[in-house]
Amino acid sequence: MRFLTTTILASAIAGPVFAADPELTVFDWAGFEVPALFQGYVDKNGDSPTFALYGDDDEAFQKIASGFKADTVHPCSQMVSKYRDAGLIEPWDTSKIPNFDKIDPKFLDSEVYKDDEGVWYIPTDWGATAIAYNPDTVPAEDVASLQVFVDPKYQGRISLPDSSDDVWALAYLATGTADWTDVSDEQFQAAAEWLREAHQNVAAYWADPSEQAQLMASGAVDIAWSWNDGVTYLRADDYPVAFQREAEEGSSTFFCGFVNIKNGPGNEEKLYDFINAWLDAGTGKALLDEIGYGHTSTEAMETIKDEAAVQEGLSPVDVPILAQTPNDPAQREKQLAEFEKIKAGF
After folding, report:
1. Are residues 192 and 114 in the same domain?
2. Model confidence over 1-31: pLDDT tens digits?
3. Is residue 100 part of a domain?
4. Is 4 a domain residue?
5. If you average pLDDT over residues 202-217, what whole number do you get?
6. Is the pLDDT reported for residue 76 higher than 60?
7. In this structure, are 27 and 84 located in the same domain?
8. Signal peptide position in this chain (predicted)?
9. Would you say residue 241 has pLDDT above 90?
10. Domain of 225: which CATH number?
11. How many angstroms separate the CA atoms of 224 and 205, rounded?
12. Which comes out higher in pLDDT, residue 142 or 182?
């Protein structure tokens, strides 16, 4: 089973997991070490980069901030300001990235990513966070609302991500807030109270999509707040799963990409080979098939626009959408601290 294999490998996060080309170290999400996502790099250099894997954005940041040596990291958009503020990254030289201008401009529409000093972020992939559920055990009407996560009927049968950003996106939506860039104290408290209630139903917090898929496939849980990849992994192993992106309170979207770590130990030319491979239009199909995500390249998306996985998992929906774009760093730290308390039962 693909997802079980990824979970086992991801458990070895203490250091490089896939020792391959020693001249480039990529610190990446578990599951993104699939060569089809950077096939041009393999074709040119004869091997994959060395990969170290993580399951959570904050975990990855703390490791880099503590001195872990890598050439590039794959954070989601709301994390980029933390890397910049900590002085951990440097701008990309876009003259070395021929397909940079193929990136949909909406993914660079922030001074956090692109300013007078340069381009700090190369967005590559995007997806949705919504309700994954087993249609054999959960009626569709039960997941018409995000309140399914606090329904006593499902006590011990749900899973939430061990990711502060994603659980707060869920909690804000469930309590009527679809924009986290300007959250009042009242909105924060309402979301926190809702999360405490949902915590009572949680069988497990999943650390990465492979673990979420394993929890659902084993029958341990029937409902999860999920990214596209958890659903993709389950379907690859023929488990029944549906993806509800149109709950009445809404769903969430996110995008991720690569930052250039300052004083990375590897070969800079190979770093650009890696980014250029990612931005090749052909990566769009591999990204959709392997992970279930969309590509930031308009050219890549054009090649997959008619795929069923795009229509179901990435197409526009007529409900509120909380976009996980950069928000107030102080608010984000407050959310992170509160989430840790909630998980601990306080």
Report:
1. no
2. 333 333 333 333 434 456 689 999 999 999 9
3. yes
4. no
5. 95
6. yes
7. yes
8. 1-19
9. yes
10. 3.40.190.10
11. 9
12. 142
Is 32 in the same domain as 149?
Answer: no
Give me the half-sphere count of Cα atoms (radius 13 Å) on the Cβ side of residue 19: 2
The pTM of the full predicted model, rounded to 2 decimals, is 0.91
Query: How many structural domains compose the chain?
Result: 2
Range of the domain at 293: 20-126+254-314
Does residue 220 lie within any of the structural domains? yes
| Per-residue pLDDT reduced to its tens digit, 151-169 | 999 999 999 999 999 999 9
